[in-house]
Amino acid sequence: MLAVMFAAFIIQIVFRYFFNFPVGWAAELSVVMWLWLVLWGAAFVLTDEEEIRFDLLSASVGRRARIIMGIVSGLALVVLYGAALPATYSYVTFMKVEKASYLKVRMDWLFSIYLVFLVAILGRYLWRLSYLVRGREPDRAEPTQTSSGL
Fold it and tell me: What is the pLDDT of residues 72-95, one digit of tens each?
């Protein structure tokens, strides 16, 4: 997706500045690839350790408080994203009446990545909650001992 986005960007520059013939499809393709790249990456590529989190407060409390905070935030995300899922599905399926200006692709196909993202994030946080409820912190690496015992 990044290669397609980069190629469309270069094509857009070449056509606009060398041939004085702006091509709208290249800009539209770049935007679509960016949308898909970010949401696909956030759903399936980004690990818990790579997520940006405001952990100033959670880092200053004990393990039990961190687990409780994780459960509360995880439940909030599951409830909010779960509540948004029907309306999101309705909106995405409604967008089948629209097509992209240059690419002529139905907008429901272009926006469908958000549904995939939403379901993946719901699954990820349900999985995290299953760890937290059992008293484990899924994003904390357990300390390992080296062969020298250090």
Answer: 999 999 999 999 999 999 999 999
What letter represents residue 45's amino acid?
Answer: V
For residue 7, give the amino acid letter: A
Q: What is the pLDDT of residue 45?
A: 92
| CA dist., res. 9 & res. 11, Å (int) | 5
Neighbours of 146 (CB within 10 A): 6
The rounded distance, in Å, linking the Cα atoms of 83 and 144 is: 40
Task: Quick: pLDDT tens for 50-69.
Answer: 877 777 887 888 889 889 99
CA–centroid distance for 137 within its chain: 21
Cα 52 to chain centroid distance, Å, stands at 12
Question: For residues 101 and 28, is the Cβ–Cβ distance under 8 A?
Answer: yes
* Rg, Å, the chain Cα set: 21
Name the CA dihedral angle for 141, 60, 73, 140, rounded to a multiple of 10 degrees: 0
- State the residue for tokens 């393709």: 29
Q: Which residues pair with 64 in a beta bridge?
A: none
Between 107-133 and 24-40, two packed helices, what is the crossing angle to 10 degrees? 20
